[in-house]
Input
Amino acid sequence: MTKADSRDLRSELVAAAIAMLAEPQAVAVPSLRSIARACGVAPSAVYWHFPSEADLRSAVLDTEYASLVEAVESALDSADEADDQLVVAGDAYIAWGAAHPGAYQLLFESGDALPETRAAHGPRLQARIVELARLVDPAAPFASALLLWSAWHGVVSLRLHKSEWDWGMTAQEANRRLVRALVANGTKVVDTDSRTAP
Output
């Protein structure tokens, strides 16, 4: 095929790639071969411990999710009473993501489902964050917790992928602004509700 052909293959190729990007793209665990190579064993040796590559992937995700949950819970458990617990949780979440970029991508930038049982105490942490959000937004604590998670995720993800940008503030400063905004909005919701209640 030459440039003289009437078919605009260049445009077709771009359009086909865009169509494929309509769905989330896979973020993959390192290949089984590369993992075996790092351990100095043959790829067949991996199958003694994991029946399939999917089982190895699940074990990796289980381990990394447990690490994230433990990091946030540990930060909350060791925080002073005077510390804003939502700020503490956000700082720990953001710090873990920055320190584990590949694992963070696998957990939260992949289209794969994240089972509720990924870490035994994951649901407990979720409930804890929701309870903290209830203090600033009693009317919608779960939605507020998800909103905060979305914001924390944005801080982590964009800083991982756009490390060359000047963000104008540290990730911790961004977290404090996010939590203050939620508190201000939650307080307004509570005040409005109390004024209009019969």
Q: What stands out?
A: The radius of gyration is 22 Å.
